[in-house]
């Protein structure tokens, strides 16, 4: 049964007039009349009295069926349209961006903003990474790109250096080193600091970075996995931490003092992706970020 015929039949019943039914359906009155006649021919019974329009017994019996059939058809079309929307949404996979601490300083939000402007149709999901996820966040596919430091030494990861910064240590304001915040200290001066501990499964390369390549340094009893945990240990006088110079701009906690380490090699932050990455959105994000880094410099933190 042609649903168009049922639709015309119901429109005439509800409007009580062939002309008004035709206007409602954006059809001509002859077309609506023809639909009703074809439907009557299919069911083998007269459905409507003309002049004035009223239902015959057969028409009254068909009305309920017609409404049910059209409602089911409309529901099916709505469901299929919803399915198509769900498939379209699923096809646009979000770009998952991992950020360790404050990432690559001011370059991180600049890169995110540039990508959102360039690719507004692609959702962006941000995930904060802890110190143990220096490599695993990418290798285990929990993020697509990651702002980390220092660049991982892992053949499964490709990196692009974004910032190059002086190293600092974070100490409590009562520390004897706090007075050197303007003059700086040397690596030998920080050997006895109670640096926080990190879990054994933290990548060795990241541990070397945190401890200035000196595993013999004194350790606090406290563990830390994030900059916030480091600073909690610092301001409570339980531990000391290390980082890049831009750390001070993002984590100005009362009670924490940031002291430059003059003879420590400057270190890099980077954008890291999987070496075998094929996602075109990752390539777009990487290209935009590299272009921004080149536009800003060499982007060396103040």
Task: Please describe what this structure looks like.
This protein has 302 residues and is α/β, with parallel strands linked by helices. It folds into three domains: 88 residues, Winged helix-like DNA-binding domain superfamily/Winged helix DNA-binding domain (Arc Repressor Mutant, subunit A); 93 residues, D-Maltodextrin-Binding Protein, domain 2 (3-Layer(aba) Sandwich); 94 residues, 3-Layer(aba) Sandwich (D-Maltodextrin-Binding Protein, domain 2), CATH 3.40.190.10. The chain contains ten helices and twelve strands. The strands form four sheets. Strands 4-3-5-12-6 form a five-stranded mixed β-sheet. It has a three-stranded antiparallel β-sheet with strand order 10-7-11. A two-stranded antiparallel sheet has the order 1-2. Helix 7 links the parallel strand 8 and strand 9. Helix 1 packs across helix 2 and helix 5 packs across helix 10. It is rod-shaped and about 105 Å long. 33% of the residues are buried. The mean pLDDT is 91.
Largest sheet: 5 strands, mixed
Residue windows where pLDDT falls under 50 for at least 5 positions:
none
Count, helices: 10
Category by helix and strand content:
alpha/beta
Helix content: 40-55%
Could you give the distance between the termini?
77 Å
> Which of globular, elongated, flat, extended, rod-shaped describes the shape?
rod-shaped
The neighbouring-strand order within the major sheet is 4-3-5-12-6
Number of strands: 12
What is the CATH homology-level superfamily of the largest domain? Periplasmic binding protein-like II
């Amino acid at each position: 049964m042609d649903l168009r015929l049922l639709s015309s039949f119901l429109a005439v019943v509800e409007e009580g007039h062939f002309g008004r039914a035709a206007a409602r359906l954006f059809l001509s009155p002859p077309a609506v009349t023809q639909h009703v006649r074809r439907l009557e021919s299919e069911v083998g019974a007269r459905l409507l009295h003309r002049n004035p329009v009223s239902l015959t017994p057969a028409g009254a019996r068909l009305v309920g069926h017609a409404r049910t059939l059209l409602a089911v058809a409309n529901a099916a079309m709505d469901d299929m349209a919803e399915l198509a929307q769900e498939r379209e949404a699923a096809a646009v996979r979000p770009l998952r961006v991992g950020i360790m601490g404050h990432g690559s300083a001011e370059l991180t939000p600049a890169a995110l903003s540039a990508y959102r402007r360039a690719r507004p149709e692609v959702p962006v999901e941000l995930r904060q990474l802890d110190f143990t996820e220096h490599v695993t966040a990418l290798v285990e596919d929990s993020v697509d790109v990651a702002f980390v430091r220092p660049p991982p030494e892992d053949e499964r990861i490709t990196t692009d250096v974004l910032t190059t910064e002086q190293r600092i240590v974070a100490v409590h304001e009562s520390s004897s080193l706090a007075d050197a915040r303007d003059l700086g200290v040397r690596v030998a001066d920080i050997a006895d600091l109670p640096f926080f501990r990190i879990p054994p499964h933290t990548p060795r390369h990241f541990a070397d970075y945190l401890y200035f390549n000196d595993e013999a340094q004194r350790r606090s009893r406290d563990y830390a996995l994030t900059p916030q945990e480091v600073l909690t240990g610092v301001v409570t006088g339980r531990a000391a931490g290390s980082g890049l110079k831009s750390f001070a701009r993002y984590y100005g906690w009362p009670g924490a003092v940031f002291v430059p380490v003059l003879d420590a090699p400057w270190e890099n932050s980077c954008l890291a992706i999987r070496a075998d990455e094929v996602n075109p959105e990752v390539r777009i994000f990487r290209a935009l970020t590299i272009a921004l880094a080149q536009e800003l410099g060499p982007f060396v933190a103040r």
